[in-house]
Design a protein that fits this description.
Length: about 240
Amino acid sequence: MKIASILAGVAVAALTASAASAGDINQGQTQLFGNTVNVGGGWAGFFNNLDAQWSGSPISAWHAVGESEGNNGTAATSDGATFTLTGAVSTDCAYYSGSGDQVLDFGTIGIYASDNTGPAAAFTMTDDASVEINTNLAGCNTVNTVTVSKVNMVSDNTGGYDAAIFRNDLPFSVTAAYKAGDTNSTSASNQSWTVGTGQSSGFRKHGAWKSAMSLNVNIPQQQKALLAGNYTGSVSVTIAAGI
C-alpha cells in the first residue's frame, strides 16, 4: 500500500474518535496474499506494529498504538457560576450642632420696669421671646424616631413670692420642621409638629431621611409678673435608630 494511503487511513481513524471518548488505540492493517487485512490488538497487533516499524519488511503494514484519559468530572454543554456580593453599611443618625452643648443667651428678658407703667403691667413681660435653631444636616439612614424634649426656663431666685401675682418659670413651645417620610414610605414630605407649653416632650417616627432641620422656640408673653433672677431651661433633639 502506498504511504499516502496509509496516512489517509490514520487521519480517518483520528477523525472518528469522539471528543468525549477515552480508551486504548491498537489497530492497523497489513497485506496478506494480496488482500488488506485489519489487525487489532493482541499478539497480531504486537507483531503488526513491529512490522510497521521495519523498513526492510517484505509486507506492507501500518499500525497505531495509543491511549487517552477520560473526563475527570461530568461534561456539560454549558457551565457558569453565581457570585454573591456582600457588604455592610453602618447605621448612623446625625444632627449637626457643632461640638458640645450650646448655650443660647436671651440676655435681658424685658419687663415693664418703670414705676409709671401702672400696677397691672409692672414686672410683666414686654413681649414674646423666641429663637430659631437651624442646622443643614439632620437625619438617619434607617427607620428612626425623632424626639424633642424640653425643660421650662426656671429662675434661680429662691426667695418667696405671691404665686397669685408672680411666677418663677417661663413655659415655652418648640416646633420642629424638616423633610421626612413615614416608616413604610419611599417618599418624603415636609414635617412640622410642636411640643406645646404644657408638654415635656414629643416624637415622630420616620423612614430613612436627610434634610435641613429647624427648631423654633417660642416663649409667650406671660400674664403674671416675673420673679427676678437668671432663668435657665433646655431643648433637646434626639434622632435615634429604631422605632
